[in-house]
Amino acid sequence: MKPRESTIQAKEFQAAALRRQVAQYERMIADLEVIAVELGKQIEAEERRSGVNDPSNFAYSTVARAAGERRKNLSATIADLTDRASRAADELVGIDGFFAALASADVGGGATDGTMARSAA
Fold first, then answer.
1. Average pLDDT over residues 62-83
2. What is the C-alpha to C-alpha distance for residues 96 and 56, in angstroms, rounded to an integer?
3. By three-state DSSP, how is residue 102 classified?
4. Is pLDDT of 96 > 90?
5. Strand partners, 110
6. pTM score of the predicted model
7. Coil, helix or strand for 114?
């Protein structure tokens, strides 16, 4: 295998892995957002049940306090996953740029989908 072909194959593999990773991040973010909404509902229900809405009040429900901490932690996790997904998407754009530059440099043999046409050797 020629060095150029191995580089192309490595970039294709890297792009596929990044696409899978971005999709996985997006699924995880969606799942965590649903859990955060459910925790919010649980907090509201507990505050209604106890009649105390102020977390600084000594009589505030420990269940509501714990659910609030879990929701806060989930929000931090969602922010981190969003940042990771953004960085992976940016890296994917760079790889797509590599294929676009490769296709424009190889005027006669480039494929239109951003990948190189493989010759049967």
1. 97
2. 52
3. helix
4. no
5. 116
6. 0.74
7. coil
